Amino acid sequence: MPLNSQNQMQLLSDILSNHSTDCCGSVSECEQVERLVKSLMVNADIHENVKPVLQEIYQYSQSGISSSDLTNHITTNKQNLSQWVTDMNSYS
């Protein structure tokens, strides 16, 4: 069963919140974030104001996938992660 845009936004928010709270994650989570963002960016139901946030999250996921120290990458972006979740929740 495919996820609708609301489910995708919630899943993305959950993953980012977990990264922020736990300051750790996995490459597979970053890959999941990448797939979610790609899907949301082409969805006409997504508010235009959230698309720049999604672009930032996409860059975060790309950097995380290729990072040699994922925990440090997540820790470095802790403040961004919290802000992105807040921003996404304000438009969903």
Question: Could you walk me through the main structural features you see in this protein, from its secondary elements to its overall organization?
Answer:
The protein has one domain (5-91). The protein is built from 5 helices and no strands. The chain has helices spanning 5-22, 27-41, 51-66, 70-76, 78-91.
Shape: globular
Q: Into which percent range does the helicity of residues fall?
A: over 70%
Number-wise, the strands total 0
Radius of gyration: 12 Å
Mean pLDDT: 94
Secondary-structure-based class equals mainly alpha
**Major beta-sheet overview:** none
Number of helices: 5
Low-confidence stretches: none
- The share of residues in extended strands comes to under 5%
End-to-end distance, in Å?
21 Å
Number of domains: 1
Order of helices and strands: HHHHH
Pfam family, one: YtzH
Protein name: YtzH-like protein
Organism: Rossellomorea vietnamensis
